[in-house]
Amino acid sequence: xxxxxxxxxxxxxxxxxxxxxxxxxxxxxxxxxxxxxxxxxxxxxxxxxxxxxxxxxxxxxxxxxxxxxxxxxxxxxxxxxxxxxxxxxxxxxxxxxxxxxxxxxxxxxxxxxxxxxxxxxxxxxxxxxxxxxxxxxxxxxxxxxxxxxxxxxxxxxxxxxxxxxxxxxxxxxxxxxxxxxxxxxxxxxxxxxxxxxxxxxxxxxxxxxxxxxxxxxxxxxxxxxxxxxxxxxxxxxxxxxxxxxxxxxxxxxxxxxxxxxxxxxxxxxxxxxxxxxxxxxxxxxxxxxxxxxxxxxxxxxxxxxxxxxxxxxxxxxxxxxxxxxxxxxxxxxxxxxxxxxxxxxxxxxxxxxxxxxxxxxxxxxxxxxxxxxxxxxxxxxxxxxxxxxxxxxxxxxxxx
Length: 400
Prior knowledge:
By secondary structure, this protein is of the alpha/beta class. The protein is 42% helix and 15% strand.
């Protein structure tokens, strides 16, 4: 695989005499998360490429970032799932589309996608969706509700796993699916740009002794993220000379947190496993880790942690389902284990923690190159802008 760097694919401005496209992205809110971060990143890329970038949502703390990248925010009550509100929002979005000459509406969540679909049909704007997860199926109407994310003229899948899921579950035409991985900002997740003082501050905050290997599992505290699986694997290692950090907010799941604490105590791992809560400096957290684990018991639609950790040059261990096998290069950038298999996870931990200096450096270089080539923010923006150009090209087929 040829290595690429962040600067190899600059945004392309419209050709001379070509009208700058107007792109409207719609989502419920601009709080925090992968969907919101991707929206802001694409908004900035549209502006850099010479287009006009609009985002409609209920707002949130990330709305200010849109202004910094030159995009415009339109406040609409798009988080509601009420059928009547969805219809009202369709009328509001149609007004926005007409008033601003919007060329493409890009929907990133189900409720606003229904409004955007209706508005696009009324106005003739192109309609694009990004399918971000498998979504629960539940009652029969739920599958119909979810299906709006497959109704774009082009549908972005955030992994091949998601693309295959759409074809199997929703019978989506593969010809209109484009796999565009989520992108990591290589200026933020760069081991050379994280000063030692930030790492030392975290180590002191978490009371980590010098020279002891660190296992990191970054994920909100919820059962399917596999914290209990990792605790059981650590018990198999019987090594008290390591530290395991469970980084993530319990989001009110105090019963689960207490259950984890009891399990740690029963396995005699009180000095090994620490539940440290949310972290505001994940690049520094990755840098102090010796190995990063994603132990999810349900398939990950993408797996941001596995990519961010590799960008920081760290070995990664992931459950072999969902998108994990697309992200990790086995025995080159990390290890895959059978989902739910404690023994295999323990074996992978042992392999990662026993790497000598030369092997660790080789793996680090391969991991960084893997992210640069396939999972950078620049790659994601480049591929998304190309998809917009494909749709706007004369004679492009429309089949929402």
